[in-house]
TrEMBL record:
This is N-acetyltransferase. One of its GO terms (molecular function) is acyltransferase activity, transferring groups other than amino-acyl groups. Its EC number is 2.3.1.-. Gene3D superfamilies: 3.40.630.30. PANTHER family: PEPTIDYL-LYSINE N-ACETYLTRANSFERASE YJAB. The keyword Zinc-finger does not apply. The lineage of its organism: Bacteria, Pseudomonadati, Pseudomonadota, Gammaproteobacteria, Alteromonadales. Residues 1-141 form the N-acetyltransferase domain. It is an enzyme of class 2 (transferase). The keyword Cytoplasm does not apply. Keywords: Acyltransferase, Transferase.
Length: 141
């Protein structure tokens, strides 16, 4: 089930974010992601509207919205490929008329996932933190 994030979920959400970020972004050093955990804890999660996917008492994924931006969507690596990401994304889409996101150009599986779910590439930019190119993608219902 998808439910609203609670403060007690924070450590599990951070664990999912870190492990999934390292797996999805092998083209960026793991140390970069590790150095961003405190920013996620102190800035990004508190500023966002976050929802978690929980099954049998365990959180296996989450997404965060910041205004009309899908700021994060992650599934724990061991649970990927089981439809959790699709459930999370559909829930996010149901909460906004349009969504925008940034995804690294080198993250081909995620780009394909977003395209499959109706997102289209609108623009390209370079991530100021990593120097890697990103696609700006948008979905409109």
């Amino acid at each position: 089930m998808i439910r609203e994030y609670k403060e007690a979920d924070l450590e599990r959400v951070l664990e999912i974010w870190l492990s999934a970020s390292i797996k999805a972004h092998s083209f960026i050093e793991a140390e970069f992601w590790e150095s961003k955990v405190s920013d996620m804890r102190e800035m990004y999660i508190p500023a966002s509207e976050t929802f978690v996917f929980e099954s049998e008492g365990e959180i296996n994924g989450f997404y965060s919205l910041y205004e009309n931006t899908l700021a994060a969507i992650f599934v724990t690596p061991g649970a990927q490929g089981k439809g959790i990401g699709t459930l999370l994304l559909n829930d996010a889409k149901s909460r906004r008329e349009s969504l925008q996101l940034a995804v690294y150009k080198d993250n081909c599986p995620s780009i394909s996932f977003y395209e499959k779910h109706g997102f289209i590439s609108m623009n390209e930019k370079v991530d100021e933190h990593t120097g890697h190119p990103e696609l700006i993608m948008e979905y409109t219902s």
